[in-house]
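User: ok so my PI wants both of these folded by tonight, can you help

Assistant: No problem, let's get them done. Here's the first:
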Amino acid sequence: MAAYRSAAGFQRVLLAFKHVCLKQRCGVIICRYSTVYDPNEKTFDKILIANRGEIACRVIKTCKKMGIKTVAVHSDVDSSAVHVKMADEAVCVGPAPTSKSYLNMDAIMNAVKQTGAQAVHPGYGFLSENKEFAKRLAAEGVTFIGPDTHAIQAMGDKIESKLIAKAAKVNTIPGFDGVVKDAEEAVKIAGEIGYPVMIKASAGGGGKGMRISWNDEETREGFRFSSQEAASSFGDDRLLIEKFIDNPRHIEIQVLADKHGNALWLNERECSIQRRNQKVVEEAPSTFLDPDTRRAMGEQAVSLAKAVKYSSAGTVEFLVDSQKNFYFLEMNTRLQVEHPITECITGLDLVHQMIRIAKGYKLQQKQSDIPINGWAIESRVYAEDPYKSFGLPSIGRLSQYQEPLNLPNVRVDSGIQEGSDISIYYDPMISKLVTYGKTREEALKKMEEALDNYVIRGVTHNIPLLREIIVHPRFVSGDISTKFLPEVYPDGFKGHMLTAGERRELLATTAALYVAVEIDGEKVEVSGEWNLASALLPITINGKHRNLQVDKHKYAYFKLRVLSKLAAYLSKHMPEKIPEDTSSILRSPMPGSVVAVSVKPGDNVAEGQEICVIEAMKMQNSMTAAKTAKVKSVHCKAGDTVGEGDLLVELE
């Protein structure tokens, strides 16, 4: 009975009870988190979410469970977005460009006053780590659901955070602890540290404003691009330089701290599968950490949080080498994109915890209460072409969209629906697909099934790449690092290479939709209930269950044709289309805006020389000459918006 006399003790018992119920309901483990809501624990009547897309929807879901009214903000192009429809109220804060809407502090502050919101949840990105925004809210008596401005300032500045980490006895990467003034000073510092080095934005995050440099020329170029991206994304172009740890793992620790000096570490997340320093696939826990290393990393993360009097959910990121030496990378003072996998293995609702902490309540758990229950994997589903640099942005309208929520142990965090537009203005993420299992093997099998059952039409997406990653022998064995993608696909991702058996199965299935045939002299038995109106075709091929998606448009993974004998004979005599000479022309590989054009007609350019810079989703991409030649014509200028395949420059 003692546990029921203590409010904190009662909460712990209730938490444990609810978690068990969620895990074992109907005998199936489900990929969920537990919002233990005590109606006597008053928080806020109304919360404004200063964000968009899937994270805004995620916050609204927990607010609804807690009985809290919500306010959505949106740009004019997002007026029909899912997060706007989910919220109790919505306020337009400006036109599509983020600087005029989701980063428009004045407009968002007006929305707070207009709606009478008592608190603001910033989500991630945008204003989530902006100390000025937190200060302005505090001045109006509105609660910022996140840490205080001191912690945001200290951890948001990578130079200051590294000094604080050293003082808190957290392992740090060797490097220059000051602000780099210009490109030549960057070269000097890089030479003193020793190549390779990482050039990165002091106020940055999310892979933006980061470049790896292996020589002086790359350092000069990296300084220019990193400072431009940092200014565009964060309004702060300061850079720092540190030693690049070659071939590391990227492993992070989730922390949770209240305003009473209590702090916990909620285990780790393995985030090593990346492209352009941005995460693609994450899992919790990591296959690499042993209990001692996990504890050491967790304790250092908590030590850092306490050093800055941190209060909220936050993430301390580490680089881990092959000998399990770990080094502090940065602390994200916000809810992390990949937080769902931590919720799956701990049963905690991190948004709920953030709201409680912001109101001033103590943590309900002790460190010994934090479990590792099962395994969770997250795949970031993007509107990107994975065949171009592992993912260049794709835009368009979702003509057909079907999430695999019919499967058990699957969670999809999304903020879009059929008919939604994917535009050049915002991050190309479609959703976070999460699967859960008692073991890693179960979670991986479920992810494979979920990806096969995910229907996305109207935009190019990265599911083919995600599908290949999670079944690759190196990934399955846990032999990964941040170099996984370039090492496994040194010439870029080319798609799945069919085995002879898979080829026969695919051809037979295609033919079965048309007429029964033999393939390569072998009979292939295809059976199933054909419903050509459905996006998914569950079939059986030679006794094996398969899920097929049939797409008549350009987004198919394998393009197949069924021809009559006559048509097949005549097709041999059709002239082949001559491929375009890509060495003499430069086309935009993605939709975006032209940041700079470095040449004019008549200029002589060398192979590899920069011709122009295209920005898409806040990432800048240098377009270079494929050969040494004279510039014949230029078809773009700074400020132009270009589409995928648009002609930029012609060479003689």
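One down. Here's the second:
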Amino acid sequence: FSLNASYYVQCITFYFFFTFVGLNLNLSDCPPLGLESLKVSDDQLESSSYLSVGLGPHRGRLNIQSGLEDDDEYDGAWCAGVEDQEQWLQLNALRPTLFTGVILQGRNSIWSLNWVRTYKVQFSNDSSVWQPCMNGSEEAVFIGNEDLETPVLALFPEPSVAQYIRINPQTWFSNGTICLRAEVLGCPVPHFSETESGSSDDLDFRHHNYNEMRKLMKSVNDKCPNITRIYTIGRSYTGLKLYVMEISDNPGKHELGEPEFRYVAGMHGNEVLGRELLLNLMQYICREYNRGNQRVIQLVKDTRIHLLPSMNPDGYETAYEKGSELSGWALGRYSFEGIDMNHNFPDLNNIMWDAQELAINKRRVSNHYIPMPEYYTSTEVAPETRAVISWMQDIPFVLSANLHGGELVVTYPFDCTRDWIPRQDTPTADNDFFRWLATVYASTNLVMANPERRICHSEDFLQHNNIINGADWHTVPGSMNDFSYLHTNCFEITVELSCDKFPHASELPIEWENNKESLLLYMEQVHRGLKGVIRDKDTRAGIANAVIKVDGLGHDIRSAVDGDYWRLLNPGEYKITVWAEGYFPRIRHCSVGSEPHATICDFTLTKTSQDRLKQILASGGKIPRDNQVRIRAMRMRKLRASTKILNRRREQQRLNKIKRK
């Protein structure tokens, strides 16, 4: 045998292995090889020709998004440079692979209409000799697209084992040209000396629909009843419950001084990786707690954790029905009524900025706890958004992250620009700490931290170390992050977890490994800065709603119902002023260290004299004698002062009359 012939026999042998040696493989079971997820590198893609550099073979990836302009280096498909039936897009799988199907999509563009209507497929082991995909005795012709965005799956009637595959367009939209985005389905031929990379954690790595998610959460609660609690914060438009998993050493109770943390996933229903990561996270914490993992035990002991895996369950179910590769870029993104929840929160940014513009003294304009505007109640607000707002108001959250997908970057507030500029760096008063939070996640994420990684679509976030101010990416008025910062005490960032919004189930183990340390380390940041309790000097009771002001930072926070507070800060020396209605303000200088342990900085406030007297009288008590004497003296001083003023006025009036005469 020649080398090529021997290789061909080997491939045939592997095909029979797949077919007859008990794997019972369905064609749809073979996963995507990774054009969309970037598992396939640019070097593995070639083409017969291309229209421009930005329309080269490396852009022929399912769901890839173009930049704002056509014909730049980040265009939205592979487009052939010649319009004939000899053009092709080629993939080198790097090893013998059982190819089972192709998913095709048109060119992503708002300016042009280009898609392939029919195509053929060929296979090769050496990229020189090619064999067509057959349908019986005839060469198979597959149906492609009739629009730009809908993915169309074609399963091969006769799967083939080979190393190379070509997609060969035959017809295309008459008013366009040959352009396509693709994903290839295939099962790598097993090399028994190799083991597939994945995760060492024995977790439930698969996609969970609504019912399966409920069962998984229940199983975690059953295994760890002492540290977990499942509760709901509302329902979706179709009536699906918004489930939250609470993890704490005292679930169901806010403990004085213990910070509250939340992760929210699935705001866009088709961005599913966050949902699965939170389900993995709750399994992992439960298991490691039971195993005695000291890091996890400490986290559970010191933090009250809330995990909302699916904020938009209606959207998820829509995307789930289509599946990971066929839901496209937008199916399931919005709520059932078509609302984008990422723009559905009250826009408090512009309310604050407008008030600052009109104010003579800008320091008098509130920079926190900005109330929701009256008009918001009459606007179209999703029930899921209303439920999350109530949740945020009920629990004194300190830190949060909103998990999205479709990019690899971490964004921090503000998300909305001033004056409706499309994109502009718009920092908060806590910009340095927000940058720290974003860096914590991005620098420990195994994909983001890889300096050799390929960009997802058209934005090169590597030059920003994979973090960016949200408004400097694109303006998002009414975002949850900005609302959280301006309406509550909670600092929140957005994590874009992967280029692929709906990764195949086979990719979930490695995605867990990519994000595990980031998820844990980010939660631990809730213990940075200052914390303490603000109490009444006389009664020692906690003072709710006290304002905590950091000198030099234009963003205040407030104490919770029991008087406890948490102020996230970078290491340094700070002058803190605390005041509450009816109390004299108090100033302290507090130091924040570099260790992830908050510095305790308690305050005791003294009631003003007037409020102390009101409190005594309201309780039916008598004013102490010494206080009565002070009150009489104070009244006499006021009477003398007012008499002097009155006499001066009368004397001035008398002099004015004399002058007129």
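The radius of gyration is 32 Å. The CA atoms of residues 259 and 318 lie 36 Å apart. Good luck tonight!
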